[in-house]
């Protein structure tokens, strides 16, 4: 019944892509019920903007008030904490760094579940342990609300352009209501199964992403050492069987591509610390399911080393720079002997 009511209440019209905020009419804004948004970081901020761009009034909050300023200027209502968001909206999206943050935002003293309305739809786009998603779903169900996990892939660029991929876990009968909102922020919205399966898909994706980025960085570094021009090498890789997302869309070598973190001293993008966290989730689930992941384990170790060596806040593609520095240190030690 909740799904039927939500469907009739929320499906006021499918989102059309690429609508400029300046052209969203006041009438359109009034026709759509508010959407809550908690977590306005590198990913959450552009996601919330896209909801505004599609005519949804947004009620938002973030632990860092300065993160709310830009969204407020675009017309969002800013409140003090997640409980206030839940008091004013019955559809809420959360985008947070880690499992402890999600637990606090949902079940803490000022958490969403303190004031959540019965029948509310709660969509968590954070990347966290699948078991935590299941715990939050159970807690939400006790309050008469519906929780779905919907982690994303695509990075900041896709979040800004509204081309994210959402991997959704939860009750299938609620998927249509969730998809209405998610298609405003993403090009692909995929139903994965029950709560936690979205997280499972995301963890698997990010383990492969880390392995691929390390492989691309090692390959580019080797080619440069062999005298190849990095742009030429990237061109050859991208027309050959070694082609991958890390080589053709997010190349880790400075100067090879424009508009990626490697061209901006590895600022922005997806942080090394977050990649290390996601690889830790993959390791935990691999251990629990007795699944051998030797390359995933090595990738986890490498990104943990990077965090300890000052790379924590740089984009995860900075593994190329890390390898180069390791190489230079090794050469220096050889010369000193």
Question: Mind explaining what this structure looks like?
Answer:
With 337 residues, this protein is of the alpha/beta class. Helices cover 50% and strands 11% of the residues. It is built from 15 helices and 9 strands. The strands form 2 sheets. Strands 3-2-1-4-5-6 form a 6-stranded parallel sheet, with helices on both faces. Strand 4 (91-94), helix 6 (99-107) and strand 5 (121-124) form a beta-alpha-beta unit. The longest helix is centred in the middle third of the chain and has 29 residues, at 197-225. The model is unreliable at 1-30 (pLDDT under 50). Its EC number is 1.1.1.31. Pfam families: NAD_binding_11 (PF14833), NAD_binding_2 (PF03446).
SSE string: HHEHEHEHEHEHEEHEHEHHHHHH
Based on CA inertia axes, which overall geometry fits? globular
Give start-end ranges of low-pLDDT stretches. 1-30
Task: Tell me what portion of residues adopts beta-strand conformation.
Answer: 5-15%
Mean pLDDT over the residues: 90
Largest β sheet strand count, sense and barrel closure: 6 strands, parallel
**How many individual helices?**
15
Biggest sheet, strands in spatial order? 3-2-1-4-5-6
The total count of strands amounts to 9
* Structural class assignment: alpha/beta
**Mind telling me the C-alpha Rg?**
21 Å
Q: Which percent range fits the helix content?
A: 40-55%
- Report the span from N to C terminus: 75 Å
Quaternary structure state of the chains depicted: single chain
